[in-house]
């Protein structure tokens, strides 16, 4: 039977994420990095489907999911969160067909900026994205450090923090507008609804300089600041907040242009585990002021 391309349904998103995990691990193992992905609940995908169902697509053959694509839009930014084809199904044009449908999602929303984050060693996919005008712009690295090693290096930060409240949404939107050029209010609402996620507003003296989220696994992100010279202290404060979660390790995605965050990471014993790459239709945002949460959320 021919492959059918259709909008995704909420009851099949968990199955689609199983395909994503299999595809990621197949790729990372072939490149010598071992298995990197583990299956997690499809909460963000479900949230995004309810928010904008035109951004999620399935490729199937006789009921079997062969590919999955997921994009979201905030303001004039379209972001391709996931595009994966099942191992053994590459070379059939499935990725091209799914990408065409998600790019139509960008066109319908009149997105001025189109972007995604992919593995730096995934050269086949990069070639596909380049054909569609998404060019390599920014290296990103996934850093991690054992919690015990981190705690031995932690220093007192000048940054104060307070737990995020719903009344902070406008402040968060203002910070994002500076760092990224867009508001991500709906995504802050999503993060605040996650009982396991902890969000903090960061202050230096009387100035609100940014925000950060940390999860129970010790992962930092997103983190945003209002000015580049605040990033070093903000990231140091984030490391302490992440260590307090009690997880065995602390992790973060750091852009290659963020000198302050990179230096703070290395000074605190963090090491690169794998490289990633931001690709986009044009430059946007100030990546000295923003650390992504993960390749799908940005």
Descriptive account of the structure:
- This protein has 298 residues and is α+β, with helices and mostly antiparallel strands.
- It folds into two domains: 4-111, Aminopeptidase (3-Layer(aba) Sandwich); 143-274 and 284-291, Aminopeptidase (3-Layer(aba) Sandwich), CATH 3.40.630.90.
- Helix content is 33%, strand content 32%.
- It is built from nine helices and 13 strands.
- It has helices spanning 13-30, 43-51, 94-108, 123-131, 147-151, 169-179, 185-193, 231-243, 259-267, and strands spanning 4-7, 56-61, 64-74, 77-85, 113-119, 135-146, 160-163, 198-204, 207-214, 219-225, 249-255, 271-280, 290-291.
- Strands 1, 2, 3, 4, 5, 6, 7, 8, 9, 10, 11, 12 and 13 form a 13-stranded mixed sheet that branches.
- The longest helix is centred in the first third of the chain and has 18 residues, at 13-30.
- It is globular, with a radius of gyration of 19 Å.
- The two termini are 36 Å apart.
- The model has no long low-confidence stretch (mean pLDDT 95).
Helix percentage = 25-40%
Tally of structural domains:
2
Mean pLDDT score: 95
What string gives the helices and strands in order?
EHHEEEHEHEHEHHEEEHEHEE
Largest β sheet strand count, sense and barrel closure: 13 strands, mixed
Number of helices: 9
Catalogue the unreliable spans. none
- Regarding quaternary structure, what we see is single chain
- Tell me the Rg in angstroms: 19 Å
